[in-house]
Amino acid sequence: MKRILLFLIFITVVYSQNENTFNYFKMEKLTMSFFHANYYYSILSMVLNHSDAAFLGISKMVHTLAEDKIKLADACMNYMTTRNADFNFLSYLSVNKNGAQMNILDYKMNAAKAMNFLYKTERQLTKNVTDVLKDMDIHAQHFLQHTVMEAQYDRLSRIENLYKKIKKDSQNAIYSYEFDRSVNFLFHHLYTDPVDVFLQL
């Protein structure tokens, strides 16, 4: 009974914190994984094992990650739009808004610039989350540092390594499937639910 009550309180608090927050979750992939049953189970487990301060801090962390990640996705897509290019990650061909085919080198250079923007923004997101941690209960800080933040640092490291690889290859005007694969993998992160880490707890 106590667990059911705590679960209901948790849902009420999360929804009441910001009634507009869930408007951000209209993207299909985010919506599906955000409401995943394992997510609720993980959060409920944290609520049962931590103080009220930690509970509120964790819900704040979820909102911060979710909103920042969706803003990051929008920002990167807007960035590509301003580059006047529609990237095709399954082939080296890329067509601009005027219908003209870009050559391989232009495609690679534009992709590298977009990846640079992605890496820098993801790095800023990591800093934002680190700042949120500072305001939390000490127990919540310790718990999240060894779960959410370790996963975030790992993701940032993988993004950085792929970006460096893409940047190096962008100077080569020869089509490379590996280049496309790296770019596609990086942009996959744009539509990965920012709270997916909770599903792994």
UniProtKB/TrEMBL annotation:
<feature type="domain" description="Ferritin/DPS">
    <location>
        <begin position="40"/>
        <end position="167"/>
    </location>
</feature>
<dbReference type="GO" id="GO:0008199">
    <property type="term" value="F:ferric iron binding"/>
</dbReference>
<protein>
    <recommendedName>
        <fullName>Ferritin/DPS domain-containing protein</fullName>
    </recommendedName>
</protein>
<dbReference type="Pfam" id="PF00210">
    <property type="entry name" value="Ferritin"/>
</dbReference>
<feature type="signal peptide">
    <location>
        <begin position="1"/>
        <end position="16"/>
    </location>
</feature>
<dbReference type="InterPro" id="IPR008331">
    <property type="entry name" value="Ferritin_DPS_dom"/>
</dbReference>
<dbReference type="InterPro" id="IPR012347">
    <property type="entry name" value="Ferritin-like"/>
</dbReference>
<keyword id="KW-0732">Signal</keyword>
<dbReference type="InterPro" id="IPR009078">
    <property type="entry name" value="Ferritin-like_SF"/>
</dbReference>
